[in-house]
């Protein structure tokens, strides 16, 4: 099969095509003939050499895929063969075929094309777990999301809208703010021209908000905490702005704030299976009914994975970038 890999970490230009054996599904696994693969920020970080695959994972980037099941592990019946699914994987998505745990797959419903299906698992699993499970989000609360037009940001906007949350997002331009509002955000702040802490105070009339989904970390953390109301929750899912933050622990104690965070890729298969099952029950009906769709930016051919990464790193995208896999 064709795949896109690299010999040494570096810029987008390090990607090169390679020919690899088609992987074989083991117990509890299926082999998926990939139609589209999602492109995510962790793929970029892996390419740069800062996010190695967990033990046992494919070294090929790609954490979410959509396509057709063409083979099943020895312990599974063949009834899933021929079904279209999307799946969360620990690597291997930038290829013509990929193995996935059957418990990490979701059936693609009628009306959802495979490009959209491939753009769902990584952001949907991440946002659902961190906003609703770790962040305890409830209807009527207000959520602050940085990077409002990113894949994570747009998914957070859409899920928040489905479950009765008010969203405030930050973006790097007026054009992106307008896009975030079109996608469904209630408020959008241009962080380059406004102080988002002051804007949150204005929007909430000084009361603060209940939850922050943080992808920046670093010196954003104390500013995020200043946006929170008493008993507010702060959930970190990336450290794009730095891994360390200076905090006033006395304020955290006095205001009873909760700080948490998580990563997804290295979590146990059993955890991901439980998360997938919860999403299938609570969120997937909205996908089946056409009420939830990912915000799509652009599709690149698999062979142009480097161009897709360059496009992501340029920062102009709105929503999800995917790779289209053409089979000979």
Task: Describe it.
This protein is an alpha/beta fold. It has 2 domains: 2-120 and 265-324, Quinone Oxidoreductase, Chain A, domain 1 (Alpha-Beta Complex); 124-261, NAD(P)-binding Rossmann-like Domain (Rossmann fold), CATH 3.40.50. The protein is 30% helix and 26% strand. It contains 11 helices and 15 strands. The chain has helices spanning 41-47, 114-118, 121-134, 151-162, 174-183, 196-203, 220-227, 249-255, 269-282, 284-288, 305-314; strands at residues 2-5, 16-19, 29-39, 64-72, 84-88, 97-101, 105-107, 142-146, 166-171, 187-190, 209-214, 228-236, 258-261, 296-301, 320-324. Strands 3, 4, 5, 6, 7, 14 and 15 form a 7-stranded mixed sheet that branches. The chain has a 6-stranded parallel sheet with strand order 10-9-8-11-12-13, with helices on both faces. Helix 8 links the parallel strand 12 and strand 13. Helix 6 packs parallel to helix 7. The N and C termini lie close together (10 Å). The model has no long low-confidence stretch (mean pLDDT 97).
């Amino acid at each position: 099969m064709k795949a896109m890999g690299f010999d040494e970490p570096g810029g987008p230009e390090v990607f090169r095509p390679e020919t690899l054996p088609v992987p074989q599904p083991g117990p509890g696994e299926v082999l998926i003939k990939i139609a589209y693969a999602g492109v995510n920020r962790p793929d970029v970080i892996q390419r740069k050499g800062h996010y190695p695959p967990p033990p046992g994972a494919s070294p090929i980037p790609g954490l979410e895929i959509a396509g057709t099941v063409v083979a099943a592990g020895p312990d599974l019946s063949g009834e899933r063969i021929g079904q279209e699914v999307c799946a969360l994987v620990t690597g291997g998505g930038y290829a013509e075929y990929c193995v996935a745990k059957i418990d990490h797959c979701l059936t693609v419903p009628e009306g959802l094309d495979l490009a959209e299906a491939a753009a769902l698992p990584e952001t949907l699993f991440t946002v659902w777990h961190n906003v609703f499970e770790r962040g305890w989000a409830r209807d009527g609360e207000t959520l602050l999301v940085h990077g409002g037009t990113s894949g994570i940001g747009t998914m957070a906007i859409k899920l928040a809208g489905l479950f009765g949350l008010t969203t405030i997002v930050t973006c790097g331009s007026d054009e992106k703010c307008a896009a975030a509002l079109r996608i469904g955000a209630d408020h959008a702040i241009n962080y380059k021209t406004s102080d988002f802490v002051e804007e949150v105070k204005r929007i909430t009339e000084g009361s603060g908000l209940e939850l922050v989904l943080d992808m920046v970390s670093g010196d954003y953390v104390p500013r995020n905490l200043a946006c929170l109301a008493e008993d507010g929750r702060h959930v970190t899912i990336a450290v794009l702005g730095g891994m360390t933050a200076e905090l006033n622990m006395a304020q955290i104690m006095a205001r009873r704030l909760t700080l948490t965070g998580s990563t997804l890729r290295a979590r146990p298969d059993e955890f991901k299976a439980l998360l997938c099952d919860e999403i299938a029950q609570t969120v997937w009906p909205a996908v089946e009914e056409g009420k939830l769709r990912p915000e799509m930016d652009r599709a690149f051919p698999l062979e142009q994975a480097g161009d897709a990464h360059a496009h992501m790193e340029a920062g102009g995208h709105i929503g999800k970038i995917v790779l289209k896999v053409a089979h000979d």
